Amino acid sequence: MKVPVMRADGLCKSFAIGGIQNHVLDRISTELYDGDFTVVMGPSGAGKSTLLYVLSGMDVPTDGKVWYREREIQNLKEKEMAGLRAKEFGFVFQQTHLVSNLTLLENVLAAGFLEKEKSEKEIRTRALKLLSRMNVEEAKDRLPSQVSGGEAQRAAIARAMIRKPGMIFADEPTGALNKKNTEEVLDLLAELNRDGQNILMVTHDVRAAIRATRLLYLEDGRIIGEMTLKPYRKEDGRSREKQVEAWLSSMEW
Ligand SMILES: Nc1ncnc2c1ncn2[C@@H]1O[C@H](COP(=O)(O)OP(=O)(O)OP(=O)(O)O)[C@@H](O)[C@H]1O
Ligand SMILES: [Mg+2]
Predict the structure, then answer these.
(1) Is 233 a pocket residue for ligand 1 (Cβ < 6 Å)?
(2) N or C terminus of the chain: which is more exposed, having fewer CB within 10 Å?
(3) Torsion-angle region of residue 112: left (phi > 0), alpha (psi -120 to 50) or beta?
(4) Is 150 contained in some domain?
(5) Domain count, the chain
(6) 0.85 cut: is pTM over it?
């Protein structure tokens, strides 16, 4: 049986622009399950990023509720929310937001040191292991300006993973990468998911969507379609692409 890791109930988000309410999220109710690589697709302006922000507590809904496991996010005090976000959530964006005057390793360590319960040695060992897993070990002592976009993004994923988050939120993590780096980053994300990492990713890219185990299609702030897929295997890439493309065209993507 699938265990929900997050739940949204009647989520709404509106912005008032020039006195007119723009309903960006329109009563979204859904669950994200343990073990899933959930990918959200949909046209530009559909509300994908807003959904990710509201689920991760980076933004507050106008109405509705969000749970992370048994905790209702809206009921948490600011400090509890900050703790939850730091401990349980990892973030990856199109831009890496790495600290420019820290090396890749130092960037990962800095995020790890927020965890007071672990010793410096434990954190360093995990950081090095993650950087090696992300294939960026050789560049670990360089500054973000001295590495490629792909290397920087892989370091940003290592940083997001350092505290073993219960959920990684990724908003177009490959949006600024070339084709080769995109494939590499996507393969790494799929691999992390196969090892049990929960991921929620927003993307425009079919190549990214084929790695999903669950696809959600958002339009005008509503989930209008969803599909469950088997865990991704590289050798199924072609047939998977056809399957996802057919689904997307049924959504009139
Ligand atoms: N802070 C804000 N104030 C006003 N309107 C906003 C704000 N943030 C988002 N919007 C509007 O909400 C709608 C959805 O935005 P969102 O960024 O969630 O879309 P998206 O699906 O992620 O699009 P894209 O694929 O282009 O990234 C858009 O019309 C956007 O202009
Ligand atoms: Mg967006």
Answers:
(1) no
(2) N
(3) alpha
(4) yes
(5) 1
(6) yes
In a domain, 65, yes or no: no
pLDDT (tens digit, 9 = 90+) per residue, 151-170? 999 999 999 999 999 999 99
Assign residue 164 the CATH number of its domain: 3.40.50.300
d(CA 197, CA 179): 24
Q: Is residue 15 in a domain?
A: no
Question: Do strands 37-41 and 199-202 pair parallel, antiparallel, or not at all (unpaired)?
Answer: parallel
Cα 20 to ligand 1 centre (Å): 15
For ligand 1, atom 2, the nearest C-alpha belongs to: 15
Quick check: is 70 in a domain?
no
From the CB of 44, is ligand 1 less than 6 Å away? yes
Using a 6 Å cutoff on CB, does residue 16 contact ligand 1? no
- Ligand 1 atom 1: residue of nearest CA: 15
pLDDT tens digits for range 176-234: 999 999 999 999 999 999 999 999 999 999 999 999 999 999 999 999 999 999 999 98
Please give the residue range of the domain that contains residue 94: 34-60+78-250
203 touches ligand 1 (CB under 6 Å): no
* Helix H or strand E segment including 96: none
Ligand closest in space to the Cα of 93: 2
Q: From the CA of 17, which ligand is nearest?
A: 1
